[in-house]
Amino acid sequence: MGLIWAFVERQTNLWKRYWAWEIVWLAYGVVNTLAITFIAEEVGKSGFAAAEDVPGLILFLLIGTLVWAYLSAVLDDVSLVVTWERWEGTIEHTLMAPVSRALHLLGMGLFGVLHAIVRTLLIFAIAMPFFTVDLANANWPAAVAVMAIGTLSVVGIAILAGVLPLLYPERGAQMSFMLQAVLLLVSGVYYSVDVLPGWLQLFATVAPTTYILEGIRAALVDGKGVGDLKGTLLALAGFGVVLVPGGIAVFAAGEAWAKKTGKLKRQG
Amino acid sequence: MQDIPLTVSNVSKSFGGGLSWEFPPWRRRIGSSLVVDAVSFAVERGEIYGVIGANGSGKSTLIRIISTLLLPDAGEVTAFGHDVVREPARVRPLINRVSADPAFFKSMSTIENLLFFGRVYGMSRGQIEDRAATILARLGLEAGLARQPMSHLSRGQQQKVAVARSFLTSPVLMLLDEPTTGLDPRSKREVQAFVREVRREHDATILLTTHDMEEAELLCDRIAILSRGRIVAEGTPQALREQVADGRPLAEVSMETVFLALTGQSLADDEVPAAVTLG
Question: How does DSSP classify residue B255?
């Protein structure tokens, strides 16, 4: 645990030093949440939807933007594990330390989750007063269970994305962002996945983020409990069990390849 | 065999060849550049062993292979009997490294950086703070600088912190890759004195790469001369001088002369073009 904590502590120290960037990302998150959720108000005002449907639409979009703020923060923090260290020049010193890659990546994952929770709660607190939402029916323990189990699979995806800068020093970081963009498209963040063309729905089926969003909405909007969401939770646990060790194994293979080709040190 | 701190046997490394994953495919390169060519040597316990060569001669590549950061194409490297390729987890606690470029998280303070690099070697906060204070003081760094962001420190001060980072974990095999590059003469002497002190008091074995002949002669018990990836000579400074003296008094034979005679290169021109520059 001490070795995992070394990475959490380091990232926290970096986070404190780059506080101005944190404010920028927080402001971006708040504006993004407000801008998208106000679309629901506009839909009601313009008559595109019945007035009684507007609160539900607001809640649908608000949950989508907040959950995506959380997921993208986790994906960013973990998938930039290599890019950040290359930028600072410390990658060789970190990778030659006697700490297993699994603990290293899990440490980055733990920080990513803590960081994402703080940022998302702040966005939530700032955005909530702008809208009237009814959360009386929400089942919070079920929502927490979905997020907790779903986060594992997101950490796994982020670790997989983190290998891209190892393989492609020049374009790997951009490729990680592309992966995020695809998840944003297919996971039903701002719409139901039912509206997607059939071939895109196939991607939605294999994206754990789809199940996280469905599970959270079922818990917070429909008040479904942990028992009702057993299928979703099992699917998410399955994704986690495959993606976390799979991501670590792929990362280790990428690291071995970078060591063979001398790409650890390359800046671009 | 178990007690030999470092053995390097027939190690070769080239870059640029084999399967390339470059995209688009027409950017894929064919052909490779041999950077380390069948290098062999062994470093005895408590020895300071120097590898001298011009930039691009393969010194840093060799250090990276020993540091478990590069996989050799051929040959074997062992640290205290452990193969660096097959048993990196056993090798890593035994070694540490100073590179010519003092790489740190520049926005973090000295102590925050040392805290991280100590923790990943399993040290506690108390151990790190105590040991860091002692080493930094020994290297002539003011205590107040430990709380400053690394970006506020001069290049020389950063390099001293890099030396402190590497000795913080009490490695039994230290890899010093041009540790005094960029230091002013006084800082250079302080670092050199510290290296000798560590060897004397902590039974550390040190592999030092440099293109500073004076430093090599001052610090090293034995020296290997690396030229275009190959070791062209190895011995004590005295033995290397004798090898090229050709009847002249040894006092008149500088290490520069030795290097020129054995490699046909002068360190004044220094650079050998390298297909892949790795530090």
Answer: H
In a domain, A65, yes or no: yes
Residues of chain B in contact with residue A167, where contact means CB-CB under 8 angstroms, are: 21
Predicted-complex ipTM score: 0.87
Q: Is residue A268 part of a domain?
A: no
Which domain does A209 fall in, by range? 2-261
> Is the Cβ pair B116, A6 closer than 8 Å?
yes
Q: What pLDDT digit, counting tens, does each position of B1-32 carry?
A: 457 999 999 999 998 765 555 666 655 555 67
Residue A255 located in a structural domain: yes
| Amino acid letter, residue A99 | V
Contact B103 A88 (CB under 8 A): yes
Helix (H) or strand (E) holding A244: helix A230-261
The DSSP-derived string for B38-106 is EEEEEE-TT-EEEEE--TTSSHHHHHHHHTTSS--SEEEEEETTEETTT-HHHHGGGEEEE-SS----T
Tell me the C-alpha distance between A141 and A223, whole Å. Answer: 10
Cβ–Cβ under 8 Å, residues A156 and A243? yes
Q: Does residue A62 lie within any of the structural domains?
A: yes
- Smallest Cβ distance to B120: which of A6, A14, A168? A6
Into how many domains does chain A fold? 1
The CATH fold assigned to B6-263 is: Rossmann fold (3.40.50)
The amino acid occupying position A200 is L
Q: Is the Cα torsion angle B41, B47, B52, B57 positive or negative in sign?
A: positive
Handedness of CA A65, A67, A73, A79 (dihedral sign): negative
pLDDT band, residue B268 (cuts 50/70/90): low
Termini Cα distance of chain A: 34
Residue A35 at interface with chain B, using a CB cutoff of 8 Å: no
Question: Is residue B244 within 8 angstroms of chain A, CB to CB?
Answer: no
Cα–Cα distance for residue pair B206/B46, rounded to 1 Å: 7
Task: Tell me the per-residue pLDDT of A212-262, one tens digit each, with 9 for 90 and over.
Answer: 999 999 999 999 999 999 999 999 999 999 999 999 999 999 999 999 988
